[in-house]
Write the structure tokens for this entry.
Amino acid sequence: ASTRTLVAFPLFVNFFDKKQRTHVIVTPLGGLWRREKTDEQPAAHKLLAPFLYYAKDGEDRKTAVLLPLFWYARDGETRAFYSPLFARIAGPGGDRRTMAAWLWWDHQTASSRNLTLVPLFHWERGSGRRKLLTPVGGFLRTETSLRALWGPVYVNDDASTRTLVAFPLFVTFFDKKQRT
């Protein structure tokens, strides 16, 4: 026979299928454990119990969930962890995203980065530009220009003109091409 069933009531029910190489165990408290093995991959197994889920499919895939505390998943080089106050996703090539306490946000790739700490600042960097925003001002800088506002002082500097305003003291306009 290719199947086998073992019952130890009320402790568990065990199903085993030799042909499909699967093994399933069910417990009366809601627990379920399943294991299967194929020629293409090592043994995979899953565990399901109240508030808990765990699965492993080969060496590169894993999922663990303990509700409501956390959820973790790994698939090759990509990893993800979520909880009510913290989350992190990391992928291949340096791509990384982090959230903490719903106030700190960080997204980093190989060529850019965004940081936010609510309500203090937001920072962006990448592709030849930088940006900073705060409650009292901020700036945007590219390869050819700068715009900044800090309190009552405003600066706009690009390839052709420069503007400087210090409200209410003065306003200056300078044309770089005509030098006036």
